[in-house]
Design a protein that fits this description.
Elements lengths: L9 E9 L2 E8 L28 E3 L5 E3 L3 E6 L2 E6 L4 H9 L4
Antiparallel strand pairs: 1-2, 2-6, 3-4, 5-6
Length: 101
């Protein structure tokens, strides 16, 4: 979702600070949705399953890599805003209810 795909390219992006929080604003040439990072299996990487939620990282256009569980997303049309400033509410709930993911 953060990068390009055969169906979608990044048109423009910007990194800014908002009250001490890093915000990436990424503009695509097609509509985007918020990433969900839902696992398709309860099994870990040792069995060939998905990467556990705590080990997922997102690489941004400037090369910075951040843990996915510390990001929150807001998609509107062709714009995706990604905030880095602590674990999202969904991430905290998922960690408490499903610690094995």
């Amino acid at each position: 979702m953060i990068g390009t795909t055969p169906e979608r390219d990044i048109v423009d992006w910007e990194r800014s600070e908002d009250d001490g929080t890093t915000v990436y604003t990424i503009e695509y040439d097609a509509p985007v949705t918020e990433p969900t990072f839902q696992s398709s299996s309860l099994f870990g990487t040792s069995t060939g399953g998905p990467v556990p939620a705590d080990d997922r990282e997102i690489r941004f256009p400037d090369g910075e890599t951040l843990p996915a569980n510390e990001l929150s997303f807001d998609a509107e049309g062709t714009t995706l805003r990604v905030r880095h400033g602590g674990e999202s509410i969904l991430g905290r709930i998922r960690r408490v209810l499903f610690p094995w993911l």
